[in-house]
Amino acid sequence: MIFQDFNLFDHLTAEENVSIALRKVAGYGKAEARQRAMTELSRVGLAKRAALYPAQLSGGQKQRVAIARALAMDPKVMLLDEPTSALDPELVGEVLSVIRDLADGGMTMIMATHQMDFARALATDILFMEHGKIIEQGAPDILLAPGSGTRTSDFCGKLFDMRGPDKAPSVSELLTGDLSHDITDDGSESTMTPDAPKKD
User: Fold this and answer.
1) 22 Rama class: left (phi>0) / alpha (psi -120 to 50) / beta
2) pLDDT tens for residues 67-102?
3) Do 49 and 80 contact (CB within 8 A), yes or no?
4) Contact between 116 and 88 (Cβ < 8 Å)
5) pLDDT top residue among 194 and 85
6) How far apart are the C-alpha atoms of 52 and 29, rounded to whole Å?
7) Where does the record place the region Disordered (predicted)?
8) Among 156, 194, 181, which residue's Cα sits nearest to residue 59?
9) pLDDT for 168
10) pLDDT recorded at residue 165
């Protein structure tokens, strides 16, 4: 499960946040748990930040640690509850890039999101909920088709109107990681995508 607010332990490093469940729940030894944690942190582009505490990480980095923590438990299905809602707009792309990479790798995910461009490009099935009930379900190219008249399409139109065209990232920006910025060891910014991890 990936939560909106990361739910990391503030007194543990990134590596310890990933490895603690492996030791306490899965029965891993300390060395084995650390090795697995480092593997998953590398997978989300954070290997060189393994020794940092949550207070030393950006919101996007914290969410990637949370994703690594979930992956370490070898889930068959991942549940994501608005994984980008607590992030600054400039940090959304790096998390969506990791989610895209997981989808490309065959991970089954159920995600609550308002990132409708991203859902349109990545989802195989969309459920639109209102007042706690599912009112529409179907493929993105049907529910989100321009002029379809679906409740989902109407909602998206209002959502984009509120954001304004100058604030709405394109699908290509979301999926290629063009919005994702990370900090290199020398303090400068660099772009990160999961297919070509930056030099952390």
Assistant:
1) alpha
2) 999 999 999 999 999 998 888 888 888 999 999 999
3) no
4) no
5) 85
6) 22
7) 167-200
8) 181
9) 46
10) 46
Rounded distance between C-alpha atoms, residue 105 and residue 44, angstroms:
13
Contacts of 174 (CB under 8 A, 6+ apart): 92, 93, 96, 115, 117, 118, 121
Taking the C-alpha atoms of residue 99 and residue 56, their distance in angstroms, rounded to an integer, is 23
- What's the token pair of residue 188? 């400068």
Helix (H) or strand (E) holding 129: strand 126-130
Do residues 61 and 148 make contact, with C-beta atoms less than 8 angstroms apart? no
- Are 52 and 13 spatial neighbours (Cβ–Cβ below 8 Å)? yes
What CATH code would you report for 14-191? 3.40.50.300
- Give 74: exposed, middle or buried? Use CB within 10 Å, 0-12, 13-18, 19+: exposed
Q: List the structure tokens of 134.
A: 């599912």
With CA atoms as reference, report the closest residue to 144 among 156, 133, 130.
156
Give the total residue count for the chain.
Answer: 200
Q: Which residues pair with 151 in a beta bridge?
A: none
pLDDT at 178 over 50: no
pLDDT digits (tens, 9 = 90+) for 43-52: 999 999 999 9
